[in-house]
Amino acid sequence: MKVDLFDFDLPTDRIALRPAVPRDAARMLVVPGDGDLRDAHVRELPGELRQGDILVFNDTRVIPAQLEGRRGDASIGATLHKREGPRRWRAFVRNAKRVHDGDVIDFGPGVTATASTRGDDGSWALDFAGDEPVELLLDRAGHMPLPPYIAGKRPTDAQDAEDYQTMFAAEPGAVAAPTAALHFTPSLIAALAQAGIAHTTLTLHVGAGTFLPVKADDTDDHRMHAEWGRIDAATADRLNAVRAAGGRIIAVGTTSLRLIESATGEDGVVRPFDGDTSIFITPGYRFRGIDGLMTNFHLPRSTLFMLVSALMGTERMQAAYAHAIKNGYRFYSYGDSSLLLP
C-alpha cells in the first residue's frame, strides 16, 4: 500500500507544545462508524460510552532515556529504545559516525557505557558500566525523551517530568509516553466508574521507534521496531468476560490496542501475553480484540495514522483529520483526543 495515501497537510502550529490544563479539559473528536462527527471534551467521555464497557490503559512509566555524552572530542547523543539485558540497552545515536565498536561514551556524572553490536537500523547496543541499577544511572544523567516534534521547538524542562507521565504510570521501561492516557484524571475515572464503565491495565514499554518516520514508499517495505509487553491471565480473563457480557473493549492509546491485538487469537479470545510485539496494522487488517479506540491526533504518513485508518477507513479518517485541522484541534503527544467507534 502506498504511503502517500496517508499524507495530509498539517500546519506546524497545530502540534501542541504543552498539554491542556486540567488534563481532561482537552478536546475530543467523536468519530462513529457512520453518522456525523461530534466535537466534545475528554471530560464528557462517560456519556459517550456504554455501561458495561471497559477502558484498557497502558501502565508503562517513561524513564529519562535521553542522554548527552562525549567520546573523546565528539559530542554523542543517545536515545534508549529497548532493553536487551540487565545492563544493555539498544539506542539510537546522534553523531553515530563518530562511534565505533568498543568505544566508551561518557554521559557523566559517573555514567559510562560501551558501544557494541551496531544494528541494521544504525542503532547501537550500549552496555552500562558499574554495579548501580541502570535506572539510577538514568535518573542521574538522563532526561525526559520528548518527541522530536516538541523537543525541536523548546527545551525539556521540569514540568515535562510530570506532564509526560500518565496517572497509571507504574512499570518503568518506556521511552515514550502512552499519550492517549495523559488526558485522564482521578475525577474522570470516578465519573466513568459511576457510569458503569470499568478500566484495567496492561504493560507495553513504548520504544523510540514510535517517533521514526516511514521512509519507504510502500507499507510492505517498512519495518516496525519490537516492543516488550505483558497481559497477565487475570486481565485477559476480565477482558473476555466483558465481551461475553456484551460490553466493548475500548483501548486507550495505540500501544494498548497493538498489545491486545497481539494477544488475541483468530477466535477473538484474548490470551495472556509476555514478550515482544512488532505488529504493524494497516488498512485490510481484521481487528479481533478491540471494539474502539481513544487516541490523540497523529502525524501525516505515520504508522499510527495508518492504524486509525485501518480501524475506521482511510477516507473516514482523512475527513476527520480535515475537520480537526479546520476546527483548531491540537495534534500529537500533548494534543487533543479522538474517540473512534467503528
SSE topology sketch:
Blueprint lengths: L26 E6 L5 E4 L3 H4 L5 E5 L1 E3 L3 E6 L2 E10 L4 E7 L9 E3 L5 E5 L7 E5 L5 H8 L6 H4 L6 H6 L7 E4 L11 H9 L3 E7 L22 E5 L1 H12 L4 E4 L1 H10 L9 E5 L14 E5 L6 H10 L1 H13 L10 E5 L1
Helix pairs in contact: 8-9
Would you mind describing this structure in some detail?
The protein is of the alpha/beta class. It folds into two domains: 3-62 and 162-341, QueA-like (3-Layer(aba) Sandwich); 66-142, QueA-like (Thrombin, subunit H, Beta Barrel). 22% of the residues lie in helices and 26% in strands. The protein is built from nine helices and 17 strands. The chain has helices at 45-48, 134-141, 148-151, 158-163, 186-194, 233-244, 254-263, 303-312, 314-326; strands spanning 27-32, 38-41, 54-58, 60-62, 66-71, 74-83, 88-94, 104-106, 112-116, 124-128, 171-174, 198-204, 227-231, 249-252, 273-277, 292-296, 337-341. The strands form three sheets. It has a nine-stranded mixed beta sheet with strand order 2-1-17-16-14-3-12-13-15. Strands 5-6-7-10-9-8 form a six-stranded antiparallel beta sheet, covered by helices on one side. A hairpin with a 7-residue loop joins β9 (112-116) and β10. α8 (303-312) crosses α9. The longest helix is centred in the last third of the chain and has 13 residues, at 314-326. The chain is globular and about 60 Å long. The two termini are 22 Å apart. The mean pLDDT is 94.
